[in-house]
Amino acid sequence: MKPVSVRIQLWLIAGGYAAVIVISALWFLARYLQEAAHPADVSAASGMYAAGDAMLAFLIACLFLIPSFFLLRVIAKFEGLYSTYAKFLLAFSLTAPVSLALLNFGLNRVPQSLGFLCLYRLFWSPLILLGIVASRLVARFALAKKLTSYALIVEGLTLGIAVALLFKRH
């Protein structure tokens, strides 16, 4: 059987991203129409609707992981491209401890918008950790393996410390 070319693989991955975008747009539209049709229910149970919105966002983020995994497998064949990706991944993972430090130590000194951004970054940390694990599993070259391992350590330790701080305060 003849292997599929990289160009066709990239087109299939782009189709996967397009499908996820269309599906998520339809889900958001259905959610909006439901909320527009029943504004009294939204007002009466705003917390439940907010939880539903958060679950929908999490589900859509998980759907985006599927074509992203296949994209990782394609770019893992190219050392320069994957090494650049691994450097970006390490730099991005360093935003987790910075966010945790700003939230933990700069409570009254951080602007509210920056605090919200830090909290949002830590909220998505488990999903980002899953993406880093997948990146580490498909890495083929020594530099990429080392950088993704460092990113995995940074993200994992930060998540562990954040959970420990959460339980320590309560």
Structure description:
- This protein is mainly alpha-helical.
- The protein folds into 2 domains: 1-75; 79-170.
- The protein has 8 helices and no strands.
- Helix 1 packs antiparallel against helix 3, helix 4 (79-93) packs parallel to helix 8 and helix 7 packs antiparallel against helix 8 (142-169).
- The chain is flat.
What layout of secondary structure does this protein have?
Layout: H1 6-37, H2 39-44, H3 46-75, H4 79-93, H5 95-105, H6 112-123, H7 125-138, H8 142-169
Q: Structural class of the secondary structure composition?
A: mainly alpha
Which runs of at least 5 residues are low in confidence (pLDDT < 50)?
Answer: none
- How does the major sheet shape up? none
Residue-averaged pLDDT: 92
Distance between the ends: 59 Å
Query: Helix amount, in percent?
Result: over 70%
Shape: flat
Quickly count the domains: 2
What radius of gyration results from the CA coordinates?
20 Å
Content of β-strand? under 5%
Number of strands: 0
Task: Give the topology string: H per helix, E per strand.
Answer: HHHHHHHH
Number of H- or I-type helical stretches: 8
What's the gist of this structure?
The chain is mainly α. The chain has helices at about 5-35, 40-45, 45-75, 80-95, 95-105, 110-125, 125-140, 140-170.
What keywords describe this structure?
170 residues, mainly alpha, 2 domains, 8 helices, 87% helix, flat
